[in-house]
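Task: sequence design from structure.
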């Protein structure tokens, strides 16, 4: 099970992260790039630093093995044309540097960006 959009400005305060994790579910932080600081953000956007702090809190709780990250850029090959921040590049240009700055190490980044997606897509527990 994947609980998607667990990081957006509407779901984040009420998402039962602990329960999802305890049931073996995956927690999708998949709205990276929908930052309130960017032009024309969606109403459910979130401040970039707030989203990252939320993410780091879950990593520190030991949930890294069940976190999936994405920019939710599925509407065209490179995201939504004309929407700053909402592209696949955002993960590499902004999100990963933010994670490193927050103290997330390379082994955890590998888990988040390679191992977790591979396990999820292969339906491996």
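Answer:
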């Amino acid at each position: 099970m994947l609980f998607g959009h667990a990081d957006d400005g509407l779901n984040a305060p009420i998402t039962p992260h602990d329960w999802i994790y305890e049931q073996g579910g995956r927690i999708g932080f998949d709205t990276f790039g929908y930052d309130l600081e960017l032009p024309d953000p969606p109403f459910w956007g979130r401040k970039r630093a707030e989203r990252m702090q939320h993410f780091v809190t879950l990593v520190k709780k030991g949930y890294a093995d069940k976190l999936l990250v994405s920019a939710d850029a599925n509407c065209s090959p490179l995201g939504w044309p004309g929407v700053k921040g909402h592209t696949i590049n955002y993960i590499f240009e902004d999100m990963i540097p933010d994670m490193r700055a927050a103290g997330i190490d390379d082994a955890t980044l590998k888990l988040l960006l390679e191992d977790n997606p591979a396990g999820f897509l292969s339906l491996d527990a």
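The first strand starts at residue 2 and ends at 3.
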